[in-house]
Design brief:
single chain, about 700 residues, alpha/beta, 7-stranded mixed β-sheet, two-stranded antiparallel sheet, 31 helices, about 5% strand
Length: about 700
């Protein structure tokens, strides 16, 4: 016997973890047809049954607004699974039951998994499972997905329901609404493919997608208008209120608390982090600490990596290629090792940044940060929910473009996607690290934090302008569920760090390596010519005067911006090539044996570990966290070419300018070429205006 089992539930309630526990981590991952939303499913063969488990996208309701809601609803209506496992967060039962009630209206057999049952009991709650079944016809099984608790009972119930196909009882609403539902059901043809009661409710709500399928849609619209007239309210609001009233009745009869609920850790911390006066200063302080620890902890490892790539790999590769043509040696040493190696030098920096961001995300603080910043955003007319993908953009702009799918409104999705590139992703960090090390060594973390805040401020201003011009419209209400605070496990942190750092290294080995080779070609044709007489040099020299108002009209930093269009990390490698610093570095090589060099690198690594721990430990004391390092050849060149003001202007330009070609690809995939054109125009004009303002005002103020 075959049985298709769909897992539905609110976001982050543990659906995927539960499927993994039941199916033994046998998930197959793909995409839902026609969209890029992830589709997970697993097959499980039991004694007398073959089960196909399908993980539906997490949704709060089955309204046809967000992509996730559309996918979940379409699958349940069109594919008609045999049963649905409704996974709920038992600690937040009332909110989760809203989706449960909508699933009941679809007349599909349901088993409810009361997940996070350990926290539920810890909070002193009791749930009358038998009474709930008596009232709803839905069986409930307590589960703890992360520990596999309840998976056998749930599997047994799944198999039983696959055989019995017992449907839930229909929720009962007020007498007037029930009369309207009865009248609407009379309008539905007998061969209509969807459940009658659910369809009737959609008629009353006036949902055009459903009503347009009827031979006489006008009669349905007349009934919808009459329904709104009787209640003197929006039909969707009336139905939602009816559902919540039904849920309140269920909760009253089934959920009990054994003792008066005391304030838990979440309540205490939220009273501080969500305080209307303290929330934003605490968020800014948190980000400052993140950057400060990131720089202090990663500094020794950056120095070691730089020495390993240039002093070890570069040196011995050069020795191996000693008999090769000069151009080949230059391509490998200057182009690939010099360019990609310079980018890889910053891997420790990314690792530390991703560690602290993962710590904030997994602990539950990042959701609070979004909530706190929402107040500021909404005060100037922007949608609060949009701040969530923007915060994700601190790590990488690409997933934050995809995160805009969580927004119900297409206009808000597009507007948020256009603002995402202003969020300073990790790829910009190496640029900040390089320039702050040269010009702002005394306050490196503060200047980097300022970059992030400038990105947020520009996004707010640009968003406000677009909202008043191109994207006019009402701001929908902001609904957000805050997860409880948790101690992040090592496994969770490692998964987050490894995937992000791995993506950075992969990009360095593919996109950036190809960019560096291409850059080497355009900077060496004609071969042997002066850098400014090469293809790249001539192009940069031609456009460099345009950047004079912004303070950096030297052709070399302008040339470095060109490959930076492909990937921000490439700016660093390009600066290394156009300033021709590799040759200077090579001159510092010592005459040592291969074994002596390996021994030196291993010793150097352990010294870096020791220095990093010392720097991290002492960095809480102001003034002692600075790590003295000798300036690299590239830093010396940059110091000669920039002033502190022009360097700051250049950093701001890099912050606000087109993030990378992968982000543009994500925008194309989600919104098409028109939006890509808009994003390019916005991220070209905005950084030029802001950098010019900063430089010109800075000059007037005497910087």
């Amino acid at each position: 016997m075959k049985c298709r089992v769909a897992f539905a539930g609110n976001p982050n309630v543990g659906k995927t973890t539960l499927i993994n526990a039941i199916a033994g981590a046998n998930l197959k991952v793909g995409n839902w047809p026609g969209v890029t939303v992830e589709k997970k499913e697993a097959d499980l063969v039991t004694k007398d049954m073959t089960l196909k488990l399908i993980d539906l996208p997490g949704t709060y309701s089955l309204s046809p607004y967000s992509i996730e809601e559309k996918i979940a609803r379409e699958y349940l209506l069109e594919e008609k699974p045999d049963i649905v496992i409704d996974v709920v967060d038992s600690t937040n039962l009332q909110r989760n039951l809203y989706l449960t009630v909508q699933l009941m209206e679809l007349e599909i057999p349901i088993v409810m998994a009361l997940n996070i049952w350990d926290d539920f009991k810890e909070k002193g709650y009791r749930f009358d499972i038998e009474k709930f079944y008596e009232l709803t016809g839905v069986r409930a099984i307590p589960t703890i997905a992360t520990k596999g608790v309840g998976k056998e009972e749930l599997l047994m119930m799944i198999q039983e329901l696959c055989k019995t196909k017992e449907k839930p009882k229909m929720p009962k609403y007020s007498t007037v609404t029930e009369e309207f539902i009865t009248r609407a059901m009379e309008l539905i043809p007998s061969d209509f493919p969807y459940p009658k009661r659910w369809t009737a409710i959609k008629i009353l709500e006036g949902e055009k997608d459903i009503i347009d399928k009827f031979p006489e849609p006008n009669r349905c619209m007349d009934l919808h208008e009459e329904f709104e007239k009787v209640f003197n309210d929006d039909a969707e609001g009336v139905i939602a209120e009816e559902r919540y009233t039904y849920i309140a009745s269920l909760i009253k009869q089934t959920l009990k608390s054994t003792e008066k609920r005391k304030k838990d850790l979440t309540d205490i911390l939220d009273s501080i982090f969500l305080n209307r006066f303290l929330g934003i200063p605490i968020f800014i302080f948190m980000m400052y600490i993140v950057f400060k620890f990131t720089f202090d902890g990663s500094g020794p490892f950056i120095d070691w990596t730089d020495g390993f790539i240039n002093g070890f790999i570069g040196k011995w590769t050069s020795a191996m290629l000693s008999g090769a043509p000069e151009w080949l040696q230059s391509l490998v040493i200057d182009g690939i090792i010099g360019g990609v190696g310079l980018v890889l030098t910053f891997v420790p920096l990314m690792f530390f940044l991703y560690f602290f961001l993962a710590l904030l995300e997994e602990s539950g603080y990042m959701a609070r940060a979004a909530f706190v910043m929402d107040r500021a955003m909404r005060s100037i007319g922007l949608h609060g929910k949009s701040f969530i993908p923007l915060i994700i953009g601190f790590g990488c702009n690409v997933p934050s473009i995809y995160a805009t799918r969580a927004l119900e409104n297409e206009r808000d999705r597009k507007l948020t996607a256009l603002l995402v590139p202003f969020m300073s992703c990790g790829a910009r960090l190496p640029i900040y690290a390089l320039f702050t090390a040269v010009f702002f060594k005394e306050n490196q973390a503060g200047i980097v934090l300022l970059m992030y805040l400038i990105g947020i401020a520009v996004a707010i201003v640009v968003g406000l302008i677009l909202k008043k011009t191109v994207f006019k419209g009402e701001v929908p209400p902001f609904v957000m569920e805050l997860p409880p605070y948790r101690f992040p496990t090592g496994k969770m942190l490692w998964k987050s760090i490894a995937s992000r750092t791995g993506a950075f290294v992969k990009k360095a080995g593919t996109v950036i390596a190809a960019t560096m080779v291409l850059l080497w070609v355009v900077i060496n044709i004609p071969y042997g010519a002066k850098p400014q007489d090469t293809i790249l040099g001539k192009a940069a020299v031609a456009i460099a005067p345009v950047f004079k108002p912004a303070g950096f009209d030297d052709w070399r930093p302008v040339a470095a911006l060109i490959p930076g269009t492909i990937a921000k990390e490439a700016v660093i490698g390009a600066l290394g090539q156009v300033y021709d610093v590799q040759e200077e570095a090579e001159g510092e090589d010592k005459a040592t044996t291969f074994n002596e060099d390996i021994k030196e690198q291993i010793t150097g690594f352990f010294i870096a570990v020791k220095d990093s721990i010392r720097a991290m430990f002492t960095s809480i004391v102001p003034g002692v966290f600075e790590i003295e390092t000798e300036k690299t050849p590239l830093q010396k060149k940059i110091k000669e070419s920039f002033t502190p003001l022009s360097a700051f202007s250049y950093m701001v330009f890099c912050l606000l300018w087109i993030p990378c070609i992968v982000t543009l690809g994500a925008i194309y995939q989600e919104f098409g070429w028109k939006m890509v054109g808009g994003a390019i125009a916005l991220t070209t004009i905005t950084p030029y205006i802001v950098s010019t303002l900063i430089y010109q005002i800075g000059l007037l103020l005497g910087f």
